[in-house]
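Tokens in:
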């Protein structure tokens, strides 16, 4: 019986990659998001130590005395927070707010537009970035890192293309299987050579462009169907388009183990 205590998925990284930049990047995005909010509400939150150009920005952007635009932009920011809570990829939303805040600041500094136009521009940028800056999600079991499949493959190539297996799943919008993702997680936990399998989940409904570039399959009528693809390093070694998504988690995990012969692959690696 396989040992269930799984070591980390990725081997110890070289010294040059030892420093963890994620907290600094998170802080950078968070500060930019706060700046974006402050530029909307700056006139209502006086800061005595602000002077010079930044103070002029606030004067330029809040001179008409109306609050309707501020409420609109605040609702947009609240929408960011709600979606970020529902979707763990909060970095994408913070980066969207960062981009919106910078555009807003540039407009204020260089164009000197009326505040109503600036506020509406800020809202439009928020909405556009909210829709287009979201990233496809992938999960490394060991650290629950958020990486897209391309980043996963690059990571495998860095640490050795023949040392890791990647299961990549594409699900069309017609498929509603609650058991599929937990089943794959269970498969990863059960494989004898722990640390050899990673999982990339791609939702075709939300990310059709990226999915089409990667591994989405179509049936004879051109309709997307579920596909489960096994990579070793950066090389595709097996593909299945007959995933029994109707099964429960346990049965589905057994099917994946059998279909892709993960036990044999790991034992021989």
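Residues out:
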């Amino acid at each position: 019986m396989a040992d269930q205590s799984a070591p980390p998925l990725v081997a110890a990284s070289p010294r040059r990659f030892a420093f963890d930049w994620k907290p600094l990047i998170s802080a950078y995005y968070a500060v930019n998001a706060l700046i974006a909010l402050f530029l909307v509400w700056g006139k209502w939150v006086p800061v005595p130590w602000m002077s010079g150009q930044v103070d002029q920005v606030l004067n330029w952007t809040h001179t008409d005395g109306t609050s309707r635009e501020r409420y609109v932009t605040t609702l947009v920011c609240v929408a960011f927070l709600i979606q970020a809570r529902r979707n763990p990829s909060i970095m994408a939303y913070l980066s969207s707010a960062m981009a919106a805040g910078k555009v807003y600041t540039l407009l204020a500094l260089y164009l000197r537009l009326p505040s109503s136009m600036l506020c509406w521009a800020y809202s439009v940028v928020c909405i556009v970035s909210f829709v287009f800056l979201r990233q496809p999600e992938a999960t490394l079991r060991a650290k629950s890192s958020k990486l897209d499949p391309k980043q996963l493959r690059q990571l495998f190539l860095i640490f050795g293309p023949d040392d890791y297996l990647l299961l990549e799943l594409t699900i069309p919008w017609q498929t509603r299987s609650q058991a599929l993702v937990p089943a794959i997680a269970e498969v990863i936990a059960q494989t004898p050579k722990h640390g050899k399998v990673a999982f990339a989940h791609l939702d075709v409904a939300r990310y059709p462009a990226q999915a089409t570039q990667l591994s989405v399959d179509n049936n004879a009528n051109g309709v997307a169907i579920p596909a489960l693809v096994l990579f070793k390093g950066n090389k595709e070694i097996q593909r299945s388009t007959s995933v029994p998504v109707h099964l429960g988690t346990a049965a589905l995990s057994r099917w994946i183990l059998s279909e892709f012969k993960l036990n044999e692959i790991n034992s021989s690696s």
